[in-house]
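Extended Data, panel c. Modelled sequence:
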Amino acid sequence: MVYLPLTGALSIWLMSSISTRPLIAYSTNTLAQNSEIDEPFCYMKTPDGKTVDLGKLCEKQPSLGTSQTCIPGLNIAAKVSIKATNYDGNFFSGQVLNQGCKIIKNVKVNYEVLDESGNLIDNGFIYAEPLTLAPGQSAAFRGEVVAGAKVQATHADGQE
């Protein structure tokens, strides 16, 4: 029976120390705030290691219907331009623009990975999102690739 009051006092002491701590949701855990998971989709790393958010540059442009300068009758690779590519050693990213007069679906960007001598190491493709592009609309692509000295886009594919 001596243990019961001691257990009660210990429980009260433990509960009081827990209740005075801030909740995790309100804490300022700098490790969680600066984790890789919170890395923006569109960004660049400066030489001093800072991350610059380029989200405004990667936002999809509003569709204005059929573009006045659309390119009719050409193959899809000629209608989809690839712009603003970036390779950071792990990920290859960039933008595509539908310059055609029709909606293009399932746009993918084909790329190749080269070594320091310019020899082909690997190749593949990354889908752009959104998967459907109206005339004049742009989309972003980003994917992990095999490490190499240089990664370059070769062409874009899709379906009308």
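The longest helix spans residues 3-19. This feature is highlighted in the accompanying rendering.
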